[in-house]
Amino acid sequence: MVNLALKNISVELGRQQVVKDVSLEVKQGNFVGLIGPNGSGKSTLLRTIYRVIKPGSGAILLDGRSLQSFSLTESAKKLGVVGQFNQVNFDFSVFEMVMMGRTPHKGMLEADRQEDYAIALAAIKTVGMESYAHRSFSTLSGGEKQRIILARALAQQPQVLLLDEPTNHLDIKYQLELLAIVKALGIGVLAALHDLSLAAMYCDQLYVLKGGAVMTSGKPRQILTPGLVREVYEIDCDIKENPATGCLAITYYPVCGQV
Ligand SMILES: Nc1ncnc2c1ncn2[C@@H]1O[C@H](COP(=O)(O)OP(=O)(O)OP(=O)(O)O)[C@@H](O)[C@H]1O
To answer: What is 2-220's CATH number?
Structure first.
């Protein structure tokens, strides 16, 4: 069953067409990566799906139903988001931040239930931050904040998770861990990623954006070639399978005259 489908989505911002006729699918259990250079429209597309931006044309379907027909609470029960910027204006404890993930599941004025506490604690544990539960969120490092924002999305128990460069700020161990945690959820995931090696390692399917349009899509091994990297990013590289890991290893060549 298709969980999330975009049909011919176009978005205009400040008189510029930033997303052009994008169609894509995130099937249940599939980890789908959005790759492309800076400014290619990845965040705008994600923001359109989580309803911060209205598309100029096209349709977004969740479980076959137009996203527009869901109330914001209804769509928040199904769609979890880990964004790029995690500034909060008020100070909350780590535990309070993660409990916010339970909000869409509660009725108006309904008190927190024991079950909600247990789900939030389990989510904090999953990201390895249990000893931080009572710390103030604003005092955390960038990477620690990112892990708590993931925990909040996990506490939401979404059916589809949207991630905008989720590995920003994380050291390499936590980059690998975060993607492994997300992959193990077995839900549909759509993630904007810059690191092509990580994208190849974790994604079942990649969509390559350039100038707001989908240039190509497919399984990482089928589409990630030196020719594509050259065309999209204007740099040269070698791509080989690492015999020890079975993963693609990408080695970039220095930009001419800059090493
Ligand atoms: N409010 C806005 N008004 C005008 N242009 C905008 C607006 N927001 C974004 N853009 C432009 O839209 C384009 C796509 O931006 P977007 O943030 O979606 O790219 P991205 O692929 O996520 O980039 P990055 O990899 O740098 O995060 C950029 O050229 C950006 O300057």
So the answer is: 3.40.50.300
pLDDT digits (tens, 9 = 90+) for 156-215: 999 999 999 988 888 899 899 899 999 998 999 999 999 999 999 999 999 999 999 999
Contact 155, 101 (CB under 8 A): yes
DSSP structure class, residue 19: E
248 neighbors 201 (Cβ within 8 angstroms): yes
Instruction: State in Å: Cα 16 to ligand 1 middle.
Output: 10
Please identify every stretch of the chain with a pLDDT value under 70, giving residue numbers as ranges.
1-2, 85-87, 108-109, 257-259
Residue ranges of domains in the chain: 2-220, 225-259
Q: What is the pLDDT of residue 7?
A: 97
Question: Closest by alpha carbon to 190, among 201, 176, 171, 206?
Answer: 206
Classify burial at 6, counting beta carbons within 10 Å of its beta carbon; exposed 0-12, middle 13-18, buried 19 or more: buried
Mutate to test the pocket of ligand 1, among 18, 42, 47 (most ligand atoms within 8 A of CB): 18
Answer for the pair 130, 124: CB distance below 8 angstroms, yes or no: yes
Dihedral class, residue 59 (left if φ above 0, else alpha if ψ from -120 to 50, else beta): beta
Ligand 1 center–CA 40 separation, angstroms? 7
